[in-house]
Each structure stands twice: as structure tokens, then as C-alpha cells.
Design brief:
Elements lengths: L1 H25 L2 E8 L3 H16 L4 E8 L2 H10 L4 E5 H4 L5 E16 L14 E4 L10 H7 L8 E4 L5 H6 L5 E6 L4 H13 L4 E4 L4 H7 L3 E6 L15 E12 L5 H13 L1 H7 L18 E2 L1 H7 L6 H38 L1 H14 L4 H23 L5 H26 L1
Parallel strand pairs: 1-2, 1-3, 4-11, 5-6, 5-7
Antiparallel strand pairs: 3-10, 4-7, 4-8, 4-10, 9-10
Helix pairs in contact: 1-12, 2-10, 9-11, 13-14, 13-15, 14-15
Length: 426
């Protein structure tokens, strides 16, 4: 019975240890992602992703932290206050941020009337440029173009235009060209171009940045991108033929010190819900993993590499060392427990041998008893020992071999007492 209880205790201890390891391994990971105030698109994307991951009981969860700008996001990332941040490519090259996902690429599309003053990029200083977002000169996209062509940024003239004012501004010649910045495949860009077409009665041209490749090589945050014929729809197709321009990327980044397994799991989970996010937030389905085999100035997070190369670890791979160590420790504890029970059992067996030792003492005393009175006392002692052994035998506390030895000793003691009485009487 005691051996069974000891074994059960060891088994329960092992199960408790395994349960603890499993609980630690499968508990969800919570990651904070910093998104700048002006980036409402990614605020919605990751807010929606956080709700979907929570509803699906995914092993990784997301919490959005809205910060002032990209610089603040980088600072919080390096300080460890957040584990992830959404940054433009120029900000992602600062510090030690490592790319987890490319959320989208936003291209610069220059559009102008065919018969207007704006015919090529070098005409920028002599024209009024309508823009669809604030501050393009300082945004890191148009600025490098002006620098490449030697155009003073201070002499650049531009006018910020809401979408619904683009057509009138072109008709009234308030602007000579329009700069649209956004994902090529997005509805937002297509609508902006449609407004431009409406303002020029369809007589538009797309201005190519012919030196886009050279500019991108000088400015690592930018990349040359080819906009294919008909990318913006329409009839006839817009553009009528492919042309080159510049683009920057918006990236989800993490600290290189962030756990690779957790980042790989995040990428996997975001890919699983990507289509659902896109359905809830238009323009959100453009995320992709970076090409891990392509030479790039951007750091690629090891977790993203593991996911892209199919080397993501499963639960057993991640915790195999702990499992083996736990098995080794529990095996050692089991051996210690078995030894302890054996030692305690040995002590109990020693206690059970006490009646046999008393019989030996009584037997020696019986053979040397000086008178019948002493023999009478020895018989009473033998009866007491018998009563004690009998009570323990009923409780199954004495083994069969010990009981047989006791019976043999008791019989020998009674024989010795009888023989000594005869001798004393003679």
C-alpha cells in the first residue's frame, strides 16, 4: 500500500511538472505595436487584427499604441516600451529596427495635362504642384528627387488639395500638375487619378521619373517601381503604357532582440487573417514578407527569415530542451523517492524484527533461569509479545516470512522454559 502511494505521488508530481511546462508554453504572447497618429490606416489594420487574433484564441495577441510620429515609435521600440512599430522605410533604416513585414508600397505618381507647362520632372521649379497629402517635400519621397535634379526645395511651390478640389484646381489652372502618393492597387489612388482625369477632360499624361533607379541607389529608403499599363483602370487604360517612378515602403518592424519564435508566429497568424483584415479595412491586404534572399539595406528579423524559409519551430522544437531536462530531473527525483521509501521501509522492517530479538533474549534467560518464579515471568513476557505480534499480523503489518520466524522462536522459547522447569524440579 505504501509503495503504491509513493508511486502515485511520483506520477502526480511528474504530471504537475508537465502541466506547468505546457501552460507556460501555450499561454498567449502579448505584443504592443506603435503606430503614429497620422497613420490611420495601420491603426485600423492592427486594431482589426488584434480583435481577430483575440476572437480566434491565437497564441499571439496585438495591442495598438498610438504615438506622435515615427521618431517616437523608434524611441519606444529601442526603449523596450513596445515590441513592434509601423514605420516608413526612411525611419525603418534608423537605429536597429528589423523588418517583420512589408505592409505596402506607396508610389509617387505625377500627373499633368498633356498641353500644360509640366512636361517632365525638371519642370518642377517652374510650376505649381498640387499634392494630395501635406508636406511632400519633407516626406523623404519628393525631396530626394529635387535634390537629384539640383532643385532648391525652398523654391518648390505646392498646394495641398482635398480630393474633391483636384478637378476644379486643374480646370482653373491653380495647379499645373498633381502628385498622388499611395499604394498602386488601392481604390484611393484610383479615385484621385479619376478626379485628375475629370479636371482635364481626359487629356492627362503620367510623368516618368526616368532616373528613378539612380535615385533609389543614392537613397536606400526609396526604390524604383514600375507602374504597368492599365494599373489604374479606365478606358482607355491608365496609364496607356508602363512607366517608372519612385516608391517607399511601410514596414512592420521589431527589435532584433525580439524572440524569433514569437515573431515567426506573429507573421504566420497575420497571414492567416490577411484576407479577413482586407475585407474589413480596404487597402490592408497588401502585406508581404520581404525577400530574404535579396540584398537589401534593411535588417530582416530572424523570425521572419524562419517563417519565409519554412524553419518555424513547433512546440516540441521550442521546448524540447526543457522537456528533456524535466524528464531527467523527474527521473532523478523518482530515484530519490524510491530510495527514501526503501530506507523508510527498511526502518519499519527493523521495528518488525524487534519481537524476534526479544524472543532471543527470553530464550537465553529461560535457559539460565535460577528458579520457577523467573520462568513464570518469562512465560508472561512471551504471552505479551505474542499478543503484540498477533495484533500487528491482523493489520497485515508483518510479512509471512517474519511471522513464520516468530512462530518458530516462540515454540523454541516454550520448549526451553519447559525443559528448564524439569531441570529445576529434578
Amino acid at each position: 500500500m505504501r509503495a503504491f502511494l509513493g508511486t502515485a505521488a511520483i506520477v502526480l508530481a511528474v504530471l504537475a511538472a508537465v502541466a506547468g511546462v505546457v501552460h507556460f508554453a501555450v499561454r498567449p504572447t502579448f505584443l504592443k505595436v506603435a503606430v503614429s497618429t497620422g497613420n490611420t490606416l495601420d491603426q485600423r489594420v492592427f486594431g482589426q487584427a488584434g480583435e481577430m487574433l483575440l476572437s480566434a484564441h491565437a497564441p499571439v495577441r496585438i495591442e495598438v499604441v498610438v504615438v506622435e510620429n515615427g521618431k517616437t515609435a523608434v524611441e519606444q521600440l529601442e526603449a523596450g516600451k513596445v515590441q513592434l512599430a509601423v514605420l516608413r522605410s526612411d525611419a525603418a533604416l534608423q537605429g536597429s529596427a528589423a523588418t517583420v513585414l512589408i505592409m505596402r508600397r506607396e508610389a509617387a505618381v505625377l500627373i499633368a495635362p498633356k498641353t500644360g507647362k509640366f512636361q517632365k520632372v525638371t519642370d518642377l521649379p517652374n510650376t505649381m504642384l498640387g499634392i494630395t497629402r501635406d508636406g511632400p517635400v519633407d516626406s523623404g519621397l519628393l525631396g530626394p528627387v529635387l535634390d537629384y535634379y539640383g532643385v532648391d526645395r525652398e523654391k518648390m511651390k505646392y498646394l495641398a488639395l482635398p480630393t474633391d478640389e483636384i478637378a476644379n484646381a486643374l480646370r482653373q489652372k491653380k495647379v499645373d500638375a498633381v502628385l498622388v502618393v499611395g499604394p498602386i492597387a488601392s481604390k484611393q489612388v484610383s479615385d484621385l487619378i479619376a478626379e485628375t482625369v475629370r479636371g482635364t477632360k481626359g487629356t492627362i499624361q503620367f510623368i516618368e521619373i526616368e532616373e528613378a533607379d539612380a535615385i533609389a541607389k543614392r537613397v536606400p529608403a526609396l526604390e524604383k517601381i514600375e507602374i504597368e499599363q492599365g494599373a489604374f483602370g479606365g478606358r482607355p487604360p491608365r496609364p496607356p503604357e508602363s512607366f517608372n517612378t519612385l516608391a517607399f515602403s511601410v514596414r512592420l518592424v521589431a527589435s532584433p532582440k525580439a524572440d524569433s519564435d514569437k515573431i515567426a508566429e506573429l507573421v504566420k497568424q497575420l497571414y492567416l487573417i490577411r484576407q479577413n483584415i482586407s475585407a474589413a479595412v480596404p487597402g490592408a491586404g497588401l502585406m508581404e514578407t520581404p525577400d530574404v534572399d535579396e540584398a537589401t539595406p534593411f535588417l530582416i528579423h530572424p523570425g521572419t527569415r524562419a517563417y519565409a524559409n519554412g524553419e518555424q519551430k513547433n512546440l516540441l522544437d521550442r521546448y524540447s530542451d526543457w522537456i528533456y531536462l524535466g524528464a531527467f530531473i523527474m527521473s532523478g527525483l523518482g530515484s530519490v523517492a524510491v530510495g527514501l521509501f526503501g530506507w523508510l521501509g527498511g526502518r519499519r522492517n527493523g521495528d518488525r524484527a524487534a519481537p524476534l530479538r526479544k524472543l532471543q533474549d527470553l530464550l537465553a534467560a529461560a535457559r539460565a533461569a535460577p528458579d520457577p518464579r523467573t520462568l513464570d515471568q518469562l512465560e508472561r513476557n512471551a504471552d505479551e509479545i505474542f499478543d503484540s505480534v498477533y495484533a500487528r499480523g491482523i493489520k497485515d503489518e508483518i510479512s509471512a516470512s517474519a511471522l513464520a520466524a516468530f512462530n518458530l522462536g516462540l515454540a523454541e522459547l516454550r520448549r526451553a522454559i519447559a525443559a528448564r522447569r524439569t531441570a529445576l524440579a529434578g
